[in-house]
Write a structure and sequence with these properties.
Blueprint (H helix, E strand, L loop, with lengths): L1 E9 L5 E10 L4 E5 L6 H8 L7 E6 L2 E2 L5 H6 L1 E5 L10 H5 L1 H5 L4 H14 L4 H4 L9 H13 L5 E5 L7 H18 L2 E6 L2 H7 L2 E6 L3 E6 L1 H6 L4 H7 L3 H8 L18 E6 L4 H10 L5 E4 L5 E5 L1 H13 L5
Bound molecules: adenosine-5'-triphosphate.
Adenosine-5'-triphosphate binds next to α1.
Length: 325
């Protein structure tokens, strides 16, 4: 869907923001771009909607070189979300979301229906939040409106630059999870810039790790990046808490559990289900009296027991899984 073909950017003052880069982003993929400040992530993103022009190479979208396309048309076909949303302060939430549909000449009914649909999608109440002005919303709600506005015309590509960066950590996590759900639902191709490795591994189908000078150090699925960092840079960027990060990614499977042959009725049941993250399993174990929890399936039937040993084994299974590159 998006191809960086030998793309590089050197600014007029000689700063090399992006080194020669070859990278393909598949249709429906959510690719996270992660790296320290100044590693060229925003520059790279902005080359896709031509806010920045590359000094070498080409960017292809859907097989066509975007340098030959009309900039305004190109941008209308792409959602763009930035850290401080950039909502129009004197327009209501609904009017903000309706901006591009109106520009495209949609009639009132179609636009209103779309606005309502999008507000519901990002879990805001159309009747309550639609008529409000941006300053009457929380930071997290404003980001949701930013996402809704970017999705308004159902773009095939979404460019997101630190979209959740200005939201407090708790609100951030729920926004991330909801955005993950929205992405699964819509299948939009997304490039998402972040400097937060946790966000990158939580959301990305693949994660691209950049170092200074826009050098691509590794691009791989999240678990691969965490378990097999390709370079010393990636290893140090991930830091010491890889196990914790894996906990939030890996999910409990039936094979991880012990058979439920414990007669005790004391064992806590129902807090953990197959398919939950190991993080959820860990919290339940930590809160259990005997260090054992009964795990249920979607229908509520008990499928086995989880102990600290079994949790550890599940973590190792994930770490050693052949996840490809
Ligand atoms: N217009 C510009 N002129 C000159 N240098 C620039 C310009 N824009 C960015 N740079 C430089 O290019 C490099 C990459 O910047 P960029 O904003 O792409 O990095 P980033 O990884 O997105 O950083 P951050 O996480 O801090 O936003 C930096 O050294 C930056 O100072």
């Amino acid at each position: 869907m998006i191809r960086f073909d030998g793309v590089g950017k050197t600014y007029a003052d000689g700063t090399v923001a992006v080194e020669r880069l070859d990278l393909d982003v598949a249709e429906h993929e959510l690719l996270t771009l992660v790296g320290p400040s100044g590693s060229g992530k925003s520059t790279l993103l902005r080359m896709v909607n031509r806010l920045v022009e590359p000094t070498t190479g080409r960017v292809l979208v859907d097989g066509s070189d975007i340098a030959t396309q009309d900039e305004v048309e190109l941008r209308r076909g792409m959602g763009y979300v930035i850290q401080h949303v950039g909502l129009f302060p004197h327009r209501t939430v609904s009017q903000n979301i309706a901006t591009v549909p109106r520009l495209l000449g949609w009639d009132r009914r179609r636009t209103a229906a779309r606005v309502e649909e999008l507000l519901t999608l990002v879990r805001l109440d159309p009747a309550l939040h639609g008529p409000r002005y941006p300053h009457e919303l929380s930071g997290g709600q404003r980001q949701r409106v930013g996402v809704a506005r970017a999705l308004a015309t159902n773009p095939r590509v979404m460019l997101m630059d630190e979209p959740f960066g200005a939201v407090d950590p708790e609100g951030r996590r729920s926004l991330q999870e909801e955005f993950g759900r929205i992405h699964d639902e819509l299948g939009t191709t997304v490039l998402l810039v972040t400097h937060d490795i946790d966000e990158a591994v939580l959301l990305g189908d693949r994660v691209a790790v950049f170092s200074q000078g826009g050098r691509l150090e590794q691009v791989a699925p999240p678990v691969t990046v965490l378990t097999r960092p390709a370079t010393p840079f990636v290893e140090s960027f991930i830091g010491d808490s890889r196990a914790v990060r894996l906990l939030s990614l890996a999910r409990l499977e039936a094979g991880d559990l012990l058979p439920d042959d414990v007669a005790a009725t004391e064992v806590s049941t129902g807090q953990v289900r197959l398919g939950d993250t190991l993080e959820v399993a860990f919290s339940a174990l930590a809160g259990s009296r005997d260090g054992v929890v009964r795990v249920t399936d979607g229908a509520g039937s008990v499928v086995g027991l989880l102990t600290p040993d079994r949790l550890h084994a599940a973590l190792r299974r994930t770490a050693h899984a052949d996840v490809g590159a």
